[in-house]
Design a protein that fits this description.
homodimer, 352 residues, alpha/beta, Aspartate Aminotransferase, domain 1, Aspartate Aminotransferase, domain 2, 2 domains, 7-stranded mixed sheet, 3-stranded antiparallel sheet, 12 strands, transferase (chains A, B), pyridoxal phosphate (chains A, B)
């Protein structure tokens, strides 16, 4: 507390990101990064952009990056918004599009940044409870919702909802903004981007930090009709004119164009996920069926916090959330094949 | 206007950044970038960081970057905050530190983003009028101020206030936050950083976009006592955990360490400023004495808007603000020696 702080600051409980350890010999399965590096073409594009032109501001409209994203999805560039990671875009969306008289509705178990954005913006939230198997039933969204947001697949559970259910929700609440946070969509979930043309109330948010292996560059994007994007732009241009820098833009454009590398890596990650799933099940874990680049699992006989510590002792870090309903689960990022093996070996030791 | 927008969006008049033209054959004297590229060591540091590690999130605390800044100023790292350009830091400061019961006080002629931040945060502003020569008298700040912000040197006028006057203000309003926005400080103004140790209410904000030639990377920083920085951090960590990316951090660290290149370039820019000043005066302009990397000038017989258009016809772009008291002035960035010559030649033609 401080006499120098504005009133809003005193009430905040900021988001805690997963640890970014300074040690390099750890197996890092805690923040859902890609286990594979960006492709050589991406690194080459960044090096090519590392010139004296860095003295100049980037394009405030990220025109070239938005065009590359539009081309990938086969949509118009005016349906694409770019930002400093999908977290920044979510922050803009909470302020620009999700603050209404009715409550903002989201799942009780979900991305733990959502309640923080609500605090920051004074938004009243209402939760819908996930089913016992952690599946999300969108018909449970109440008609009095002021707006709706959910990740698809959900985090940290990894479960998806179908496009049909999303379209139904958009039709049922045509005057309410529906944000689908697709950070993990590329690991087995269908994207809602094709629904955007029919639903002016739908905003789809994606990131370069997971399936596109560029968490270190901070780039995310949103796809929606221009009316929604104009709201985001008004906030962005009242906050920071140039959030996407020249090198981040160059790297993201090259990543978007590298369809083969993208496809190759996501298939590998999904194959490793199937293997981890199977191995964990053999070890007695209950594993939530995941469409993400992580699994969410609990062991019926072992405390999740203790398991996380025991893994840490073996130089493997996973994520444990001390939150209602999920404090006995671990969220484990799918690593390389070797990292997945090391994880299973360590768990065998710990459980022995 | 849209039914999908939150209430705050409807009342916003976003900031308009200076044009970033796509044409490369223009002489760009409109957004106060450095005319000289970052040093080879900076580009080399970025290339060295362009590795597979870009798949990993950056350090959310920007520890290494903050240490490099702390070392430069000879202060402790816990007195340094880093962000995605000084605009992002200002945005955080308006939300975290400048929203109080009393009005936020700033000059009537100043950085035109300040009123936008006020709109976004619902902050009541009160202006103090610059003197006729555009100098800023800090004794005019009223005792009922809730907080104070001003650029030093001021923009777009280029005039500075002394450290003694800043210290006086900090002492006179010990319970009020005073933000000194030092975007242009390295071109002839003394930094207020040494005052921070004695004034827990003082926040100094700087950027890598001007004197450090990295506008394309988006890095800025603030220096203040930990109590003030904790307010910024709470907002930042409720907004976006990792705003400074890996390459921006690598480039900024190298730029901070390159003292010789920094010194060399800023001396060249100040020498060119003196020459431009002299030449403009010969051409009949009234030139405001500038401590920044731009000059602010008017011609008593020629309309500023027409002059800007005539320069544009000759492929030179400068900044013209259609604002009260300054709509007959042009703000002209100091370019390379050749660009400065081309500017003066073009003006000779236009005025002939």
């Amino acid at each position: 507390m401080s006499r120098f702080w504005s009133k809003v600051v005193h009430g905040l409980t900021p988001y805690t990101p997963g640890e970014q350890p300074k040690l390099t010999n750890l197996i890092k399965l805690n923040t859902n990064e890609s286990p594979y590096p960006p492709s050589p073409g991406v690194l080459e594009a960044i090096r090519a952009a590392t010139t004296g032109d860095l003295r100049l501001y980037p394009d405030p409209d990220s025109t070239a990056l938005r065009q590359a994203i539009a081309d990938y999805f086969g949509i118009a560039r005016d349906h694409v918004f770019a930002g400093n990671g999908s977290d920044e875009i979510l922050a803009f969306a909470f302020q620009a599009l999700l603050n209404h008289e009715g409550p903002l509705v989201y799942p009780d178990i979900t991305y733990s940044f959502y309640p923080v954005y609500c605090q920051l913006n004074g938004i009243r939230a209402e939760h819908i409870a996930l089913n016992d198997d952690f599946s999300l039933d969108l018909t449970a969204v109440p008609d009095h919702a002021g707006a709706v947001i959910f990740p698809n697949p959900n985090a940290p559970t990894g479960q998806s909802v179908s496009l049909e259910h999303i379209a139904q929700l958009c039709r049922r609440l045509p005057d309410r903004v529906i944000v689908v946070d697709e950070a993990y969509v590329d690991f087995g979930t269908e994207t809602a981007v094709p629904l955007v043309k029919d639903h002016p109330n739908l905003l789809v948010v994606q990131t370069f930090s997971k399936s596109r292996a560029l968490a270190g560059l901070r780039v995310g994007f949103a796809i929606g009709q221009p009316e929604l994007l104009a709201g985001l732009e008004r906030i962005k241009n009242s906050f920071n004119s140039y959030p996407v820098d020249r090198l981040a833009s160059a790297g993201a454009i090259a990543a978007m164009e590298d369809r083969a590398g993208f496809e190759h890596d996501r298939q590998r990650i999904m194959a490793s996920r199937a293997w981890v799933n199977e191995q964990l099940t053999v070890l007695g874990f209950n594993v939530v069926p995941s469409q993400a680049n992580f699994v969410f699992a609990r062991h019926p006989q072992r405390d999740a916090g203790e398991l996380a510590l025991a893994l840490r002792d073996r130089a493997i870090i996973v994520r444990h959330f001390r939150l209602l309903r999920i404090d006995q689960h671990l969220r484990i990022t799918i690593g390389t094949e070797a990292e997945c093996k090391a994880l299973i070996e360590a768990l065998k030791e710990i459980l022995a």
